[in-house]
Design brief:
446 residues, mainly alpha
């Protein structure tokens, strides 16, 4: 056995053993990388150098700013206004409150960029409201947790920034533009599932549609939605970088939350910043340890080995694309979102591009795959939060979520096999030119 083979075995086996022993993911990533480097006889001083290098990135500074923006807007009284706007848009439909929940998550996702924040904020309001109107509590929780994944796709999303960094040179602005239609597609698929279930269970409709009411709620919600416009338009138009736009958005969110909506006091701002620091510390330690893991994968040529292993099973691009989806879904069952993006992107992106999947499209596929993983046991963070907010047993929530898993998987397949769902807006508005000149097969439509 060669040193390279032994090092790969030590790296992967120790990592998955620690995952199944419920080590914190940052420790599992870091310790397995250290053991791998010891096997190769490398100096441990490289560990510190690689960790510092991993977080020494100007573009990475956008992550703490976007997290801060989401927390400030999420705790500043924005949720009620976005729910009222969603109610004015779709509350008149059969299963109206379920539709409101889904659309409100789309709006809120453009502010928070976090499925966990969406579930905690929207869920604490919508789940009791839905139960009071006759909806099943497990159904209400399932709608809330699945629709929260829209926030991962709708910009600005700090997970998109992490993917852009991991993919090496992918445009953050193009990723932001690419998220709108996939987020809407996910919302529509969940709304169709909710409509079918609501018809079957005779859930009620809301008030009749009113243009006057809609315009009134748009006026009320204008200041919240403007934050998204500032970020996305500023980045796409080239007025400022993603990092600069995120910093401006934090300042804007502070003004809106404290002085316009008055949902936050200055004392509340300091508490929100404490929450930001807790979240950011987790993200940064993951990024720093994952940089060592990525270094080990690269030096050992694991991406090439993985590509050869997958292509040895089949050379059909459609089956390879499906295998990539399944690999990420399985990883989502045992790992959190950020480490999957950081670890799997360098391995799977070259395989994806080799079969005609654009890097921007793959970013959307990766984020939605990881979002589904947030809803699956045993480590689904959003599933746990939803169960806690609704005070329902996790197994009952999972059972109620099964139809929505199907809706999300259908949306995932459409995003995988129809590139223009993700790429149409970046090409039209952002002038994006795909590096994939010849997508393989008739299914990869451009």
């Amino acid at each position: 056995m060669t040193v390279q083979t032994l090092a790969i075995i030590v790296l992967l086996v120790s990592f998955f053993v620690m995952i199944f022993l419920r080590f914190p993911i940052a420790y599992a990533v870091g310790l397995s990388s250290v053991l791998c480097m010891l096997v190769q006889g490398q100096a441990l001083t490289d560990v510190c150098r690689l960790m510092v290098k991993g977080i020494s990135s100007f573009s990475l500074m956008a992550v703490p700013f976007f997290i801060t923006m989401g927390v400030l807007m999420g705790t500043g009284g924005i949720s009620d206004k976005l729910i009222a706007l969603a109610d004015a848009c779709v509350g008149w439909m059969t299963g109206g409150m379920a539709m409101v929940n889904i659309v409100a998550s789309y709006f809120f996702g453009g502010i928070s960029g976090s499925a966990s924040a969406d579930t905690a904020s929207i869920g604490s309001i919508m789940i009791p409201m839905m139960v009071d109107q006759g909806y099943d509590d497990d159904f209400s929780t399932a709608v809330t947790i699945t629709s929260s994944c829209e926030g991962l796709l709708v910009p600005p999303s700090h997970n998109m920034v992490i993917y852009a960094m991991s993919a090496g040179g992918v445009s953050v602005g193009s990723l932001f533009l690419a998220g709108y239609v996939p987020g809407a597609l996910l919302a529509i698929s969940l709304m169709i599932g909710s409509y079918i279930i609501s018809k079957k269970r005779h859930y009620p409709k809301g008030d009749k549609f009113s243009v006057k009411r809609l315009l009134k709620q748009l006026g009320t919600s204008f200041w919240a939605l403007a934050a998204v416009v500032i970020v996305v338009v500023g980045v796409v138009a080239g007025w400022f970088t993603a990092t600069e736009s995120a910093a401006i958005a934090v300042f804007y969110s502070l003004i809106v939350s404290v002085y316009i909506y008055k949902g936050l006091t200055w004392k509340g701002v300091w508490k929100s910043l404490e929450q930001c620091i807790d979240t950011l510390s987790i993200v940064l330690i993951l990024i720093s340890t994952s940089s060592i893991f990525g270094y080990c994968l690269t030096t050992l040529h694991v991406p090439d080995l993985a590509a050869n292993a997958i292509t040895s099973v089949t050379d059909n691009p459609y089956i390879i694309a499906l295998l990539i989806d399944l690999i990420i879904l399985v990883l989502g069952c045992i790992m959190d979102m950020a480490p999957i993006i950081l670890i799997a992107t360098p391995i799977l992106l070259p395989i994806a591009t080799s079969i005609g999947i654009d890097p921007i499209q793959f970013g959307i596929i990766m984020v939605l795959n990881c979002g589904i993983g947030l809803l699956t046991p045993p480590v689904g963070a959003v599933l746990f939060i939803g169960s806690a907010v609704a005070k329902r047993p996790m197994e009952k929530v999972v059972r109620a979520t099964l139809p929505f898993y199907l809706c999300m998987f259908i949306a995932l397949l459409l995003l995988t096999y129809v590139p223009d769902i993700s790429l149409a807006i970046p090409k039209l508005l952002g002038g994006y030119v795909s590096p994939i000149a010849n997508p393989l097969g008739p299914v990869f439509i451009h």
